[in-house]
Design brief:
Domain Copper-binding protein MbnP-like: 29-224
Oligomer: single chain
InterPro entries: MbnP-like_dom
Organism: Hwangdonia seohaensis
Number of strands: 19
Pfam family, one: MbnP
Protein name: MbnP family protein
Radius of gyration: 19 Å
Order of helices and strands: EEEEEEEEEEEHEEEEEEEHE
Largest sheet: 6 strands, antiparallel
Helix content: under 10%
Distance between the termini: 28 Å
Amino acid sequence: MKTIIPILFTCLLITSCSEDNDDTATQVNITFNFTHNWDGTSVSNANFNSIQYTNANGEQLSITKLRYIISKITFQKSNGEKTLLDGYNLVDVTNGTNLSFTPTATIPSGNYSHVYFTFGFDNDANYNGNYPDLNSASWNVPSMLGGGYHFMQLEGKFIDNTATETGYAYHAIRAVHNSKTPQEFQDTFFEVDLGAVTITNHATFNIEMNIAEWFKNPNTWDLNVLNNMLMPNFNAQVMMYENGQHVFGLKSFTP
């Protein structure tokens, strides 16, 4: 279900990068593992379809679907030189697929001041038709909402304020003012900085998502108000973007 299109961007002039080059550097593979939790309690698809979580607003809920896009993993040295692994990975927790992936491209071993990845697609990549596998995975966004692709689909059920079990669909896309002509957009993809690392061999990044954070920081999410039809809701998409800043973290790293 994933397509990895490795493109390595390095300095065009080798001499301009000499301050960060190490003659002993070797090309190494990088592996990214994705785990999920709810405020520290491990979450996998074995925990789906059962109302057992409580969000910051006090609503009890379940998870029935969770999948999201990670793209443009970037390694940056202290002199600004970047190595970009261009491509994407559709992490599908529901089906237990793509929870781990190793890009086919390698990177030089050495010291990196930052390692980034993008949640979702940036505007250069977010166009319908770019990715046939995502089209077949029903990952498209309708043209009336600006086209492109989802960044995340998080779905489940919650106990509403009438004690009724009600479905919710927390879908993240690029925010759009759909009622305006022409449409107005606000970027809602974001970069996650995993910090500085020293890579000596085939390194492994264990990245964790705290699902509870989507509902609490800085916006306490009221599922009774915001549970469905969130894709055309400009303000809801901006709130998701804001809450997403606190969702991901580097659980561990093996150099």
